[in-house]
Specification:
Helices cover 41% and strands 11% of the residues. It has 9 helices and 7 strands; from the N terminus they run βααββαββαβαααβαα. Strands 1, 2, 3, 4 and 5 form a 5-stranded antiparallel beta sheet that branches. Strands 6-7 form a two-stranded parallel ribbon. A hairpin with a 4-residue loop joins β2 and β3. The longest helix is centred in the C-terminal third of the chain and has 21 residues, at 225-245. The chain is globular and about 70 Å long.
Length: 268
């Protein structure tokens, strides 16, 4: 999970340029097919080298401390069983570490030997980290299943390796396999379960947005990042317009902060 301390509104020209650049960035990663290169699962399901090369081409040797706006990435340090906030070092490695979905991509190891994976494992919505690093309003996009989901699966019917192989070979027996969630689905639900949701330190000026699932998209369908980006951006604009018309206090505070920043830029 990675974050930029950046206040954006639909009417902001800077915001529009920033969002357009983000779209081009993900297009470059999509073109690399980094998320479609499956590998013998000795270390993970995906070949991480394709993603590493794409991130290196995208960010080069840029350091986090040299980017144009304050930035931090959140990872889970499995060596310390703790949340790790990254604010220095190579930008591409921070993005890569914060994207290390367990089982899907191998973890990133730092110079001291710490094993780093996706920050969502420790805290899917690290609003407390954001508040410790900055003052003012916050916009948090929270991707979390909100509906209860039960499965009609008889645990005893899940076959072992020989039984599974036999059913997969026989096309007639294949239809008798239980409709059990795939490993990718289980990983997704584990990451986004967000059991800590009741302890989110949100205040009147913290805006938590919960985008809906987009039709035709799934957790493993990563080559459609650009489609997700566009759909989520359109949904976000509509959600912010609705909140503004309802006089949401967080939106009002953000507009005041943005007006103050623009006035300061003109004076300097």
């Amino acid at each position: 999970m990675h974050y930029a301390d950046k206040l954006l509104t639909p009417s902001s020209k800077k915001g529009s340029r920033f969002e357009a650049k983000r779209g081009r960035d993900w297009k470059q990663i999509d073109k690399s097919k980094a998320f479609k290169r499956f590998i013998l699962p000795k270390y993970a399901f995906l070949d991480h080298t394709a993603l590493d090369r794409a991130l290196q081409r995208l960010y080069g040797s840029t350091l986090i401390e040299n980017v144009w706006k304050p930035y931090f990435a959140v990872t889970t340090d499995l060596s310390e069983s703790a949340l790790r906030v990254i604010r220095t070092g190579l930008l591409w490695r921070a993005v890569r570490a914060s994207s290390s979905i367990p089982g899907v991509l191998p973890p990133v190891f730092d110079e001291e030997g710490h094993m780093l994976v996706d920050g969502a494992i420790a805290d899917n919505v690290p609003l407390a980290v954001m508040k410790s690093l900055k003052a003012g309003p916050n916009v948090v996009v929270h991707i979390c299943p909100t509906d209860r989901c039960l499965f009609d699966v008889d645990y005893g019917s899940i076959p072992g390796r020989l039984g599974l192989l036999e059913r997969l070979i026989n096309p007639f027996s294949r239809r008798e396999l239980p409709r059990c969630p795939s490993p990718a689905n289980v990983i997704q639900r584990s990451i986004f379960a967000d059991i800590r949701r009741d302890r989110q330190p949100s205040g009147p000026h913290d805006l938590l947005l919960h985008p809906p699932p987009f039709p035709g998209l799934s957790f493993m369908n990563w080559d459609r990042h650009h489609d997700v980006f566009n759909a989520a951006y359109r949904w976000g604009l509509e959600a912010l317009d609705r909140l503004k018309s309802d006089n949401n206090p967080a939106i009002a505070e953000m507009e005041r902060a943005l007006t103050g920043c623009q006035g300061q830029e003109k004076r300097t």
